Amino acid sequence: MTSAAFHVEAADYAVQHALLHGVRHAVFVGEQQVPPELETDELDPLSHHVVALDADGHAIGTGRLTPQRRIGRMAVLSGWRGQGVGEALLQALVAEAASRGWGEVSLHAQVHARDFYARNGFLPEGAEFEEAGIAHQTMRRRMDGAMRVQAADQVEAALSAVIHRARRRLLLGCRGGDAALLGQPAVLQALRRFATARHDKQALVLLHDGDPTTLPPALLALVQRLPSVFQLRQPADPAGQAPAPACAVNDNDDCYFRPMGERVEGELSLDMPARARQQDALFQRAWDDARDCEALRTLGI
């Protein structure tokens, strides 16, 4: 994986361990005050490691995949954060797990990084716990099928993942209770990222209750600022139609689907073309039968 400023490659631990530990020591020991003896362990020689190198060949980030099918030791030097290094490292590790035929991979995310892993397809599990004196959250991503979404924090993670992974087209089928969900920080951040990308893009939003004023103020402001990106419609005759499911579908073969609409139970499917095409077709049928939201005129859209 490459960019103009850095690239990610597999690392030979026996040969490149000094590079890997240099980054990890700077982040974990230097910044986070983790005891030095906890920075290394017996799994290092047994794990698959990746390293991010800048244009001059200096190590700027690292991560590993252990035999226990767990991603860990994800670290990026402070000056390189926010530039896609962590995401490139994570994608390389997920790709390696998939190439080994593993059905799923897990990780222990530091709580402050939970949204980062969520938008990359990992769902939180269970309660927070402490590891090396730092609050963590178990998260898991399945690669051989749909992931069950059963809790409120998993709903937010699933929705942010589909939005974040969208390229140029995003479909959102929203039920009444989704207004608050669309205002969650991780979801809003993903929507802003999609809507403000420099390339052409389109977000179709089907509001089953037909009232855009129920949207979170921050999202409504984004819709008003970028009317060329967002199109909002409502069912033409809600009383005469069966309640449509809540869903999010992108053009990257991902979809999040709640068949019962108002209930949180659903499933997240990543890199599953057939499932995404099915949900896309169902959404498009409902969209074609819908009409523009009447309240948009009062909002100047």
TrEMBL record:
Keyword Repeat: no
Name of a matching Pfam family: DUF7931
PROSITE patterns reported in the protein's UniProt record: GNAT
This protein's record includes keyword Phosphoprotein: no
N-acetyltransferase domain boundaries: 8-144
Residue ranges of the TM segments: none
Keywords: Acyltransferase, Transferase
Protein name: Acetyltransferase
